[in-house]
Fold Prephenate/arogenate dehydrogenase domain-containing protein.
Amino acid sequence: MHKKPRLGLIGYGAFGKLTAQHLSPHFDVRAYDPAMDADDAHAAKVDLAEAAGCPVVILAVPVGILEQTLTEIAPKLSAGALVIDVGSVKVKPAEAMLRLLPDHVRIVGTHPLFGPQSAKDGLAGLRIAVCEVRGAKDARRTAAWCRKMLALKVFNVTPEDHDREAATVQGLTHLIARVLLKMEPLPTRMTTASFERLMQGVDMVRHDSPAVYQAIERDNPFAAGVRERFFSLFDKARGELDS
């Protein structure tokens, strides 16, 4: 029987569990997370050294603790290991990985543009951004694997291009959703198709952790500019109504 390659998964929150679910058919997943209770159907619970010592290491931790995590795993990484992050922003993690990880490891940045809610019916056709960080060949191979094995739609982008687009795509979505959630309860009886579509979008991010929202709005270097433009246009629209 062919032995599956080992994969270290650091972080076993909602997205870490989703990652393990879809990668366990291809890898022997070893997961580290202080909050992880025990082994489950998709991953074995291990200590940090064992997870970081795998040939492939995926970082599924909040952007806010990424640098601390990188510092902790740096001396434990194997020579030639492939380190992949899955954060919602890419410029800040790419810079941190280049600065804090040893030269003997390969680095690829990714951002799966989905979560447990949008992936509940499977991954096929969902989108993922792949960013070259250290080595174009590794980024290309990661992208090709995601296309072939997970049927994902892959976008090869720079960290800067990713964050520039995500500042609008994710930043505005989460900002508007946060406001609408504060307005609940909202009507559910006499609704329109457009309102229902809007609420579907809200429901897809309703359970995202505060750390995800903070990363999208505060750790993306382009998010503040998008927010300011949105608020400026909002104030203009309000002024037109008031006049």
Remarks:
- The first helix runs from residue 14 to 23.
